[in-house]
Every structure is written in C-alpha cells, then in structure tokens.
Amino acid sequence: MTTPGTVLITGASSGIGRITALRLLQKGWTVHAAARRVDAMEDLRSRGAFVHALDITDPGSRHALSDAVADHNEGLDALVNNAGYGSIGPMETMPLDAARAMFDVNVFGLMGLTQALLPAMRKRGQGRIVNISSIAGQFVTPGAGWYGASKFAVEAISDALRMELQSFGVKVVVIEPGLIRTGFEAVSKPSLEAGGDDPVWGSMMRNVAKAWGEGFRQGSDPEVVAACIERALTDADPSPRYRCGSSSESALIQRFIPTRLWDAIIRRQMIGD
Question: Residue 58: helix, strand or coil by DSSP?
C-alpha cells in the first residue's frame, strides 16, 4: 500500500494512537479515529478525521463502529489495533478479574474488532492489519507477567492471521515498541503503588516502580512509533515485525543469551539482586 488510503486507528485519544492519526492526516490519509473519550479527539476531528466512540470490550460498540466506517467509505484499507493498557503486579497476587479486564481490551477486544472488519477486507482482496504489541510480547520482566502475557497473545494472534490471510491479499504486521513516553506509566501507576504495600512483594514492586520510572523518563517520543506504523502501512512488502523506540533492541539481544543469565540480568536491573 504505497499511496494513502483509509485507515481506522483505535485508542486514538492519546499517546501513540493520537500521534499516528495526526501523522497520517498530514500525509493525506482518510483517518477514522476511535476511542472511549470522543471529547479528547476533537483536535483530530478539526483536522479532518472521522471520530467514533468505541468501547472495544463491547461487541455492540465494535459492530457499530464497523458499520459506521463502512457507511463512510468504499472500503477500509487498513486497521491499526492500538487500544490497550497495562496493569502491573506480582503473578501471585494480581486479582484475576484485573487480568481478565486487561485481556478483554488487549486481546479479545483487538480480535473482536478485527473479526468485525476482516470479512470486507478479505472480499476486496486487499488490506493491512497493524497490531501494536510491545517488547513485552517478546520477553517479560518481574511484575509485568500478566501484561506480557496479553502481548504474547497479540504476537501469536498476529502470526496466525498473517499466515491465514496471505492468500487473500491481507497483510498483517506487528509493531513492537520499546519504552515510549505515552503516559502508559501513569495508567500503570495505581497498580504499581498498590503492589508497593504488599508485605511479601512490596520491596520488589517498589524497585520495579523505580526502574519503570527511570526507563520511561529516558523513553522515546511516540512520534518514533508513529513513523514505524506509517512504514508498516506503506511498505510494499512489509516486514512481519517492526521494532522501534528505546530498549526495543533488547528483544533481539535476549534471543542470544541463556535463560538463566538473562534472568539474572533482568533481576539485577529491575529488582536489584
């Protein structure tokens, strides 16, 4: 897809989604921006985007969005599945309801919207699906096991979709950002602070919170990821995966280090052992 087309971006009210929408609008794309907070997307509307309310966990909301996009255009060229968030805590103590809620957004919501939009792409014989994962989809760190599990799931879903859809002309790409200054850490802050009071895991979680804070302060600008998403949308033969941003190279390095040594490195960085 070498020329601008029509794209739907979820999670477009802030962070990577908002910056990507602005970038693609400037490049001549027809942008449909979707998020729960419609009022936070008024600047996108003023620049020409079509703005939609979306609760990605609600099947009715997903199908209403699919219908609305279909009504505006001859067909959707690309979907950027960006909506997602992270809850942080020890595997032992994070409430399963909190883990399920995160999976409902990061995994089932992503796939539910994809299922709603995919038949039209398949029938047209063209399209591109860009799923925003994370380096946490390649390796996990203490306190981020449940979040990492949701991103590992996104990686698996994307791999399966890529192979299944190849003969239909629909390309599937994964973006794996590193540490990006998007406000992600602010969303995760309540769960990090709650973990710091735990009598067993408090010390670990306080160290994790400190490491995350330092890492995100040195993180990359979200424009770096927006540029990566644009490449994934416009490269004639896109790579299955694009890594971008601070610390994203860790996903490559980790493959060549024995597991016990990698564990020791991560524990020293994140926990101080």
Answer: coil
- Bridge pairing between strands 241-244 and 6-10: unpaired
Q: How far apart are CA 76 and CA 71, in angstroms?
A: 10
Task: From the candidates 29, 50, 146, 147, give the one annotated as an active-site residue.
Answer: 147
**Catalytic annotation on 242?**
no
Contact 188, 136 (CB under 8 A): no
Which pLDDT does position 131 carry in this prediction? 98
Residue 155: HSE in the Cβ half-sphere, 13 Å Cα cutoff = 18
The tens digit of pLDDT for each residue in 13-27 reads: 999 999 999 999 999
The reply to whether CATH 3.40.50.720 applies to domain 6-270 is yes
Look up the pTM and report it: 0.92
Dist CA 187 CA 164 (whole Å): 34
d(Cα 273, Cα 270) in Å, to the nearest integer? 8
Angle between helices 202-217 and 259-270 (to 10 degrees): 90
